[in-house]
Description:
The structure holds 2 protein chains of 2 kinds. Chain A has helices at residues 2-19, 52-61, 96-99, 112-116, 126-132, 163-167, 184-191, 223-237, 248-291, 293-301, 306-343, 352-377, 381-386; strands at residues 23-28, 37-38, 44-47, 65-80, 83-92, 104-107, 121-124, 142-145, 148-156, 179-183, 194-199, 202-207, 212-217, 243-246. Chain A is an alpha+beta fold. Chain A has 2 domains: 2-246, no CATH class; 260-386, no CATH class. In chain A, a hairpin with a 5-residue loop joins strand 2 (37-38) and strand 3 (44-47). The longest helix of chain A is centred in the last third of the chain and has 44 residues, at 248-291. The longest helix of chain B has 16 residues, at 198-213. Chain B has a domain at 54-78 and 107-247: Rossmann fold (3-Layer(aba) Sandwich). Chain B is an alpha/beta fold. Chain B contains 7 helices and 10 strands. Chain B has helices spanning 68-75, 98-108, 124-134, 139-152, 168-180, 198-213, 225-229; strands spanning 26-37, 40-52, 57-61, 83-88, 91-92, 109-112, 186-190, 217-221, 233-238, 241-247. At the A-B interface, helix 10, helix 11 and helix 13 of A face helix 2 and helix 3 of B.
Amino acid sequence: MLAIGEGASFKAQEIIKTLGSQNILLRSQKPGEEEKVTNRRDNYVLEYGLKNEDLKRIRNTIPGVETALPARVVRDYVWNITVRVDVDVVGTLPEYPIVRNHPIAMGRFFNQADLDAAESVCVLGKEMAQKLFPLDEPLGRDVRIGDNYYRVIGVMELRTTGSFSEGNLEDAGSASRDRMFIPLETARHRYGEVLFRRRAGSSELERVALHEITVKVVNPQDVIPVADAIKDVLEKNHKKKDYAVVVPLELLKKAEETKKIFNLVLGSIAAISLLVGGIGIMNIMLANVTERTREIGIRRALGARRQDITTQFVIEAVILSASGGLLGVLLGVLIPFAVSHFAGMRTIITPGSPILAFTISGLIGVVFGLYPALRAATMDPVEALRHE
Amino acid sequence: MSTPLNLAAGTPSSAVSPVSAIGPIVGLENLRKTYQMGGTTVTALSGLSLEIQAGEYVAIMGPSGCGKSTLLNLLGCLDRPSGGRYFLGGQDVSGLDDDALSAIRGARLGFVFQSYNLIQQLSVVENIEVPLFYQNCPEEQARQIATDLARRVGLETRLDHKPFELSGGQQQRVAIARALANDPLVILADEATGNLDSASGREILGIFDDLRRQGKTLIMVTHDVEVGERARRIIRLRDGELESDTCH
């Protein structure tokens, strides 16, 4: 049980690490009721989400913010001649790899010059790079999105659990999508402000300035107050709740909290089982003492002190409970192994827990064996010898 | 069966005083024992005084309820007298606490019971070792002593047998070997032949005779006259009092 708990919390911590505990993630999100706004061209355009003004406000008015990294995320197809991959095209700034703690596997990320010139360059995700260029090096090659070609200048490192950050608040489909990075300016030129989104049976237009803002805070301990400040600022400037604020640190705390509750519940179950087991041992030992009354009398007649009798029966109880403990430890090692193997859950056995379990089972023997042993020791030798 | 035992079975506890060379090995002065039964007080022994010298072979006889068992429990330090004094090897043991009495039993006394009272899950040699274990005798030495004693009672081929694999007479011989293990001052036998057929009984009594010849002090409780006659001295009890004390 402890192994599963440790495994779960380890996974949570790993996820949080990829998001960055110093980061605050802001995301655009379609508001609950879809209020349609008519624009000049008589089309329905849904306007929502984070705006460039929000970015400026966060950068300029909130102290303790190191960087605020904007990103436009557009879902599109990327082609290499005839191979097609469905990805999120992310228009962002050169700081992205540092802020999001996502290193580059080969080549380079785009720089400020690429951004200023709105160059047609791109950095591929590891997975899509493998799909698009299964046989040859992607660097220096071109990929096509719509009618535009982009030169591949780098490939990102594989992000194993990064899907959590993408899949957390958006639809589940995006969870598995890889990300391709282009300069923010390039994205603005290519996609403009209004996006066309096809839906099952209908299509709609929507206007979203920025899809994501990643805020990096200078001091880790300021994350929570800064997040609160950002929430305040956004609340004042947005009529609808068309954004979401994700604080990885809060998630971490929540995960810790969950783990605590989990451990508490598991602990109580364990405590109850120990109590029941202990009473079982006490019962067996009491029966044992009664059955062996005569032996106790004999031993007393042959010179055993009360203390000797007590020691004998406590040791017997400890042997009983410790062998149970050994069996338990064995199962405790095998079951997590089976759980990892068959259920795919991550389990970690900390080296202390089997030792702890074994020690506790031994102590249970002492505690619950003591009463029967004392009863054995305080028997009157004459009575005990006469016992049939 | 002739070699006298010489063993230093660990160091006796501090509660056990050195044996005084002068005076009787057992001395009772006005020993009394009463029990509370419900509201009434039952007197089991009312003021018994007697002395037993080292090397004596004494039979305590009398009808049921005369106080034989009570006297044996008191002599065996399994119970404490309500009044009077009990000197064992010159030491007054009538006022000792439970732990001290345990130490006295372990160091000075050997018991042979009517129903053998062997520990069923232990082998012959392990049963003989039990008193030595409580005297903190080193394991190897205890094994040596136990093996020697088993040979003395003729059970050297049965060392690893369990009690239930032995006949009654063999079991009682194991019990005698066990009683000898700590080289006691006094061997107390409670109807030691009571559960045995006459042949086995004679065999056991033969061993007792041998022990007496070796200078052991034996006190035997019995109501079998024939068994009692083997002893040099017969003490008869009636209603908790000494009826007669005869030597022959």
